[in-house]
Backbone:
């Protein structure tokens, strides 16, 4: 699993459950550690794009709600409130380590529009050349496909789309489970982690299960779909635990953590 050590351009995706507490408030310690590690990786010369979830969850926490709104308009409102808070935190924490970041909100149908796709790609490339960390989220305040479980299917697939747009070498998805297992590790103590996947087939899809935590809209199934998309573009993809962002160092050093999806190489 040493491919990440050779990567120049990397997309990191972080989920809601990794950066918030159960009540929707920001996990400050987790966010601080993530920003510290990513800043350090940029210092080594690596170009990092961060795809982040969490706007709706943080909006719910900031408004003191007990749960996510059930209606689309309510979730749109929470996304608008939460995105503001989320970017404030990222800007502050990355700034503590001397790094600059930029917000880029993308709508899921960007892949269907050549001109818009080109504009986004040019913007991301320009930011990376300036050593600025683009922070990407879907524009949930006005584009409701993700909120209604359509099209993108969570930011997992968005991260794969972004990785393809910028020609990334690797995609790393940080989640609340430290890799793909042969059965659900939350309900099976004897579940075994699958360290390497050479082909995403029906057998792999069958062990992915359903949706994720109550604070997010994804799950292992959407991560497998994202890995399949990225691997199809020749991008090495990893699923690792998000509770320890420092695991990225271990991954770079070639340690066997998480699950590495290896694309077919010609």
Residues:
């Amino acid at each position: 699993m040493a491919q990440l050590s050779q990567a120049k351009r990397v997309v990191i995706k972080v989920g809601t459950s990794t950066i918030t507490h159960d009540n929707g408030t920001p996990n400050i310690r987790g966010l601080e550690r993530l920003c510290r590690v990513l800043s350090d990786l940029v210092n080594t010369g690596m170009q990092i794009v961060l795809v982040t979830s969490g706007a709706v969850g943080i909006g719910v926490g900031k408004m003191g709600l007990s749960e996510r709104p059930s209606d689309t308009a309510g979730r749109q409102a929470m996304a608008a409130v939460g995105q503001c808070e989320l970017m404030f935190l990222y800007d502050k924490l990355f700034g503590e380590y001397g790094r600059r970041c930029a917000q880029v909100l993308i709508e899921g149908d960007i892949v269907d529009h050549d001109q818009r796709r080109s504009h986004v790609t040019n913007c991301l490339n320009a930011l990376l050349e300036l050593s600025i960390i683009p922070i990407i989220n879907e524009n949930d305040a006005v584009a409701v496909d993700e909120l209604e479980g359509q099209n993108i299917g969570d930011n997992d697939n968005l991260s794969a789309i972004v990785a393809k747009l910028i020609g990334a070498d690797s995609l790393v998805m940080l989640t609340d489970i430290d890799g793909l297992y042969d059965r659900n590790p939350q309900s099976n103590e004897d579940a075994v982690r699958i360290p390497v996947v050479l082909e995403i087939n029906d057998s792999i899809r069958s062990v992915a299960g359903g949706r994720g935590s109550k604070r997010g809209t994804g799950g292992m199934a959407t991560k497998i779909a994202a890995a399949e998309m990225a691997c199809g573009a020749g991008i090495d993809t990893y699923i690792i635990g998000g509770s320890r962002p420092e695991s990225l160092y271990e991954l770079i050093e070639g340690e066997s953590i998480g699950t590495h999806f290896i694309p077919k190489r010609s």
User: Anything to note?
Assistant: The longest helix spans residues 72-96. The first strand starts at residue 9 and ends at 14.
